[in-house]
Structure formats: structure tokens, C-alpha cells
Write a structure and sequence with these properties.
The structure is a single chain. Helix 2 packs antiparallel against helix 3. The chain has one domain. It has about 100 residues and is an all-alpha fold. The relative contact order is 0.16.
């Protein structure tokens, strides 16, 4: 369900990164990063509650679903922040 809820956000990030002319500003990237982080925290809470509920009964292990969620969210974060990290590498900082 959480992957479905975050699909528009992840698609927005993919479209912003994959355009021919990169126009995403850093403030927008920070805002999108914060949304992804909030979704990851929400997902961690959901899986924690699921794990607590499942420990009392025999059921499916949610670890694969949790790992997949974390993988997809972190991938979006890496893709989103990569252009800004690379721009810092291209323009060395002066030591003052």
C-alpha cells in the first residue's frame, strides 16, 4: 500500500531527473527528499506494528516487503541527490 501511495512522488522524481534539460532546483530536491524520508519512516512504523502483531501468531515474514520498500525509497533518494553531489565534485570548494 505504501509503495502505491508513494508512486506519484517516485514518478515525479524520475521525470525530473530524466528530462533532457535538468531544471530541478536544490530546494525542490530537498522537499522531495523530505517526503521520501517521511514515507520511509511511516513504512518502518507499519512494519514494526506488523512484526509485533505477527510475533503472536504464525504468518508471513514481512522482511522481504520491508527490504523492497527501503530499497525503492533509497534508490529514489540516491537518484534525486546524485546531480547535486556531482556538481559539488565538479566545483571544488576553496579553503578560504
Amino acid at each position: 500500500v505504501l509503495l502505491h501511495q508513494t508512486l506519484p512522488l517516485r514518478v515525479h522524481i524520475a521525470k525530473a531527473i530524466n528530462t533532457l534539460k535538468f531544471t530541478l532546483c536544490y530546494d525542490e530536491a530537498l522537499r522531495l527528499s523530505e517526503e521520501i524520508n517521511q514515507s520511509m519512516q511511516e513504512g518502518a512504523g507499519i512494519f514494526h506494528r506488523m512484526g509485533t502483531a505477527m510475533s503472536a501468531s504464525v504468518g508471513e515474514d514481512p522482511s522481504f516487503a520491508q527490504s523492497m520498500l527501503v530499497f525503492l525509497m533509497r534508490r529514489s533518494l540516491l537518484v534525486l541527490n546524485r546531480p547535486f553531489a556531482l556538481s559539488i565534485l565538479r566545483t571544488p570548494l576553496s579553503c578560504g
